[in-house]
Amino acid sequence: MKTVLLLSTYPIDSPRHGGQVRVANIAKTFSENGWSVTHLAVYEPEGYPPSTLGANDVPFPAGSSFRKYKGTYVPLINDLLSGEFASSEQGFPDILKKLPSVIDVIHVEQPWLWPLVLKIKQLPQYRNACLIYGSQNIEAPLKQEILDSYGVKDADSVISDIDALERKAALEADISVAVTQADFDVLEAWGASNPLLASNGIAPWEAEAEVLETWKKILPESPWILYVASAHPPNFKGFNECLGSSLACIPPDSKLVVVGSVCEHLEATLRASRWGQLNLSRLQLLYMLSDDDLDAVKTLAHAFLLPIPHGGGSNIKTAEAIYSGKYVVGTESAFRGFEQHLSQPEITVARTPGEFHAAIRNRLVGPATIGANGPDRESREPLTWARSLESIPRAAAEILKKKALEA
């Protein structure tokens, strides 16, 4: 049995945000294809409670000297700083204790821990490992957007270092994985030797009847629209950009139902709007839900909202919305990586706040579904994780065969 070491900057035992969900499904895909999987996270302890941690996860302490960037505190870049910590004498000894005795493949998601990958590969017992770089986004421009949105100044050096790091990872990896065709093209232009497209996907869900009945009593009787998101800053800052800080398009007997850690941020933003009172009257916040509850809420939704104005990579929530067969209203950017589904009649692309308001209003007064037979599951099967990620372990096996022949 081949062994893969899977690295990330977040634990995956209780996946919630998109990065966690993708890494958890990569681990599952390797395992289902006959691999032994060891996952190790170098995580920020202030962001993940002990109940969410795996046995091999290593903290990046808040008091570490590596929390400074070139001697200065810079907000929102602990992901970048984690790689230097993990490969240093401060972090690496604890990581070394967690490594399996044999590693055939090292797969790192996002570029942040690439210094750790190279540190591990320097060890004689791991020198022949196949290296996989999983690029969830082209990170430098995305980080620039985030820092700009928070008014962080003089970050040119940070962005330059991120750009250099992800280019280095793409060039040195045996396989570089992209989530969209646009990102694939960037990796290929950088000179990645084996670029691979493995899109984001979904885990099919089926809500339990008892849970559905419970949520029917809680949610609006009239058709309502669902927004599921994490507290990642673009998820609430982009919302206002798309909808103009107003929920006037939601009928008085309906709601925008919001799930996830975005809730408190979105509430604060919409409350501060000149239409604050109206907004709060159209808002139903469910915060964090269990998987069973979330499955029920997604099943009962009349429509899904995807207010993603820009950024990179692709969005797992888009895959879920398309798979549901319900109405979907979103930006062009929201459908990155899923452009082939845009012709489906339940999908509406909106480009301005006016178009968003009109589309939401129209969908909330329309019939529950486009067709009498519900969604066409067969055409949506490629959206499942089993299909979208299956090429990764297959490509890794091919590289290992090639390395064995060259040895």
Adjacency order of strands in the biggest sheet: 3-2-1-4-5-6-7
Mean pLDDT: 93
**Structure class:** alpha/beta
- How is the CATH topology of the largest domain named? Rossmann fold
- The fourth-level CATH homologous superfamily of the largest domain is Glycogen Phosphorylase B
- Distance from first to last alpha carbon: 20 Å
Q: What is the total tally of β strands?
A: 13
Give the name of the CATH architecture of the largest domain.
3-Layer(aba) Sandwich
Give the C-alpha Rg. Answer: 22 Å
Report the CATH C-level class of the largest domain. Alpha Beta
Number of helices: 17
Counting copies of identical and different chains, the oligomeric state is single chain
Number of domains: 2
The fraction of residues assigned to DSSP E strands is 5-15%
Q: Residue share in helices? A: 40-55%
**Element-level helix/strand string:** EHEEHHEHEHHEHEHEHEHHEHEHEEHHHH
Biggest sheet layout: 7 strands, parallel
Low-pLDDT residue spans:
none
Characteristic key phrases:
Rossmann fold; alpha/beta; 7-stranded parallel β-sheet
Fold topology:
Elements: E1 3-8, H1 18-32, E2 36-43, E3 58-59, H2 78-86, H3 92-98, E4 105-109, H4 114-121, E5 130-135, H5 139-149, H6 156-172, E6 175-178, H7 181-190, E7 195-197, H8 209-218, E8 225-228, H9 234-243, E9 256-259, H10 263-271, H11 276-281, E10 283-287, H12 291-300, E11 303-306, H13 316-324, E12 327-330, E13 347-349, H14 353-364, H15 377-380, H16 385-388, H17 391-406
Parallel strand pairs: 1-2, 1-4, 2-3, 4-5, 5-6, 6-7, 8-9, 8-11, 9-10, 11-12, 12-13
Helix pairs in contact: 5-6, 8-12, 9-10
Protein name: Glycosyltransferase subfamily 4-like N-terminal domain-containing protein
